[in-house]
């Protein structure tokens, strides 16, 4: 599916949704003669078919809605983890200003380098669906510096404890951001959705409609909506890929609003 996420939405959206509409209309053209040849009583046929379509529509609609909601929840949680990591980085950077310069400055330098690595390298890897490793060494270096510091006064000790707590929260948020790289729906869910979409197209094609043009419009409009919902769901399924994705904007704001403002050379 990398081709899907690497291609512009102006290409994938028309192809994806247009394919749905085209296949649905082809099903209508293929099955209309069959229905007319086999059905003796159109009113009885449509009445029975209405019960089938109604029952199927309920189950397929619920499944599609639940899958779309689950994908959106994963996307929202990934974005929240990214914002939380950026917020903890800001707090950590500011917190080190209360520590002695011999320990605070090296930590801030590593944080600044970490932010650059996340923006330039981590998100590039995550966009390809690869777990990022570029920034891990910088986190280890910050941890090493923090654990090597010994507070000499009560004030330094209080600030140090707060910075350690902030660092722990940052590491947790970072882990959530990285874990979301491989987040996706199980293949079985997509298989059920595709089968459901195909069954829906066939059921609509089996309706006894006198006018072919009206039948094609009905099938096309329904396929258009289902195609759009499935396209958005597929596009958000990988939070860091596609046109609807989580980007490094939060870290860019940390760089511009905190690091560059407090330390223009950072």
Comma- or semicolon-separated keywords:
mainly alpha
Would you give an account of this structure?
By secondary structure, this protein is mostly helical. It has one domain (2-210, 220-262). It is built from nine helices and no strands. It has helices spanning 2-6, 9-38, 42-95, 101-127, 136-147, 154-179, 187-205, 212-236, 249-262. Helix 3 (42-95) runs parallel beside helix 8 (212-236). The longest helix has 54 residues, at 42-95. It is rod-shaped. The model has no long low-confidence stretch (mean pLDDT 89).
Total strand count, please? 0
Strand content: under 5%
List the secondary-structure elements in sequence, H or E: HHHHHHHHH
- The residue fraction in helices comes out at over 70%
Q: Identify the overall geometry.
A: rod-shaped
Mean pLDDT: 89
| Radius of gyration of CA atoms, rounded to a whole number | 27 Å
- Number of helices, where a helix is a run of at least 4 consecutive DSSP H or I residues: 9
| Biggest pleated-sheet summary | none
Low-confidence stretches: none
From the N-terminal CA to the C-terminal CA, the straight-line distance is: 39 Å
Question: What's this model, at a glance?
Answer:
It is built from 9 helices and no strands.
Q: Secondary-structure map with pairings?
A:
Elements (H helix, E strand, L loop, with lengths): L1 H5 L2 H30 L3 H54 L5 H27 L8 H12 L6 H26 L7 H19 L6 H25 L12 H14 L4
